[in-house]
Amino acid sequence: MKVEDLVKFFGLEVKAGDGQLHQEVTGGYVGDLLSDVIAHSLRGNVWVTIQTHPNIVAVASMKELAAIILAGGREPDPETLKKAEEEGIPVLISLLPAFELVGRLYQAGVAGIVSC
Amino acid sequence: MEQTEERYPFHNTFRIEGGNFTHAGSVSSQVKRILKEERFPNSVIRRVSIATFEAEMNVICYAHWGILTLLVFSDFIKVAIDDEGPGIHDVDQAMTEGFSTASDKIRELGFGAGMGLSNIKKVTDEMVLTSVVNQGTHLEFMVKVFS
Ligand SMILES: Nc1ncnc2c1ncn2[C@@H]1O[C@H](COP(=O)(O)OP(=O)(O)OP(=O)(O)O)[C@@H](O)[C@H]1O
Ligand SMILES: [Mg+2]
């Protein structure tokens, strides 16, 4: 599954990183505390969060995440989008609250970091 | 090869303002850019960036101000951060995953998981943390280029 498949399937709004949507999604992680995401997310994961400041892009880039999905219709800061374009990190918006979004992503086959 | 010997080591210093969340992450971004320009392996850049980001955020979250020194050698990268601030009462406790004294305000901004120092430990080859209460904290870490 690719980032662009999630965009289509969930009607996500693409705010940045248009050219990076072909990336393969390895799974997902959700969290609003950056160091927790640094500690536990895996390369190629989509990251669901409600944080909107530029450091989410720094985290996604350092962890080589496939995309950031902002839940609950949160709008990213302009600085965040600028940085996301520079770093080539897709920033997507879902209108669904985080719980609903993650539930549906999971149902669609996006696994978590624990393989069971 | 001779050129390499002349090129390294070099160093850069950066000032970090405590409490200034507006530019949070800018020092680690600059460090990352420097290492990219030097064409270090991606894994090295990522590990130094993560550790530097966590260290920078700790100065911003908890200290008054600090200086970060980046030392670039051909075969390892060393970063030292010295801050003036409240210091850490119990360094072992601070290193424990999940331990945090972050305020609600800091948490709202996405910090305070209590994972920063353990992340630094995980991604670096050497790490030293010392602190004097009511004076400040010294952190240094090293990442080998070939490991
Ligand atoms: N430079 C510092 N000066 C004073 N106290 C510090 C400093 N760095 C860390 N601490 C103390 O150590 C605790 C643990 O730090 P650590 O970076 O592991 O987690 P955190 O900053 O609380 O949360 P996170 O890094 O996950 O956002 C902090 O909550 C703080 O009490
Ligand atoms: Mg921290």
Structure write-up:
The complex is a heterodimer of chains A (116) and B (147). In chain A, α3 (55-62) links the parallel β3 and β4. Chain A contains five helices and five strands; from the N terminus they run αββαβαβαβα. Chain A has a single domain, classed as 3-Layer(aba) Sandwich (Udp-n-acetylmuramoylalanyl-d-glutamate--2,6- Diaminopimelate Ligase, Chain: A, domain 1), CATH 3.40.1390. Helix content of chain A is 37%, strand content 17%. The two termini of chain A are 19 Å apart. With 116 residues, chain A is of the alpha/beta class. Chain B has 147 residues and is an alpha+beta fold. Chain B has one domain: 2-Layer Sandwich (Heat Shock Protein 90). Chain B has a five-stranded antiparallel β-sheet, with helices on one face. In chain B, a hairpin with a 3-residue loop joins β4 and β5. In chain B, α2 packs antiparallel against α3 and α3 (42-62) runs antiparallel to α6. Chain B starts with a helix and ends with a strand. The mean pLDDT of chain B is 95. Classes of the chains: A alpha/beta (116), B alpha+beta (147). Chains A and B meet through α2 and α3 of A and α3 and α6 of B.
State the largest interface. Answer: A-B, 17 and 23 residues
Alpha-carbon Rg of chain B, integer: 15 Å
Mean of pLDDT of chain A:
96
Just name the CATH architecture of chain A: 3-Layer(aba) Sandwich
Which sequence of strands runs across the widest sheet of chain A? Answer: 1-5-4-3-2
Q: How many domains of chain B?
A: 1
Number of strands of chain B: 5
- The proportion of strand residues of chain B reads 25-35%
CATH superfamily of chain B: Histidine kinase-like ATPase, C-terminal domain
Give the number of DSSP strands of chain A: 5
- Within CATH, the superfamily of chain A carries the name HprK N-terminal domain-like
Largest sheet of chain B: 5 strands, antiparallel
Element order of chain A: H for helix, E for strand: HEEHEHEHEH
Count of domain modules of chain A:
1
How much helical structure, as a percent, in the residues of chain B? 25-40%
- Portion of residues in beta strands of chain A equals 15-25%
CATH class value of chain A: Alpha Beta
Shape label of chain A? globular
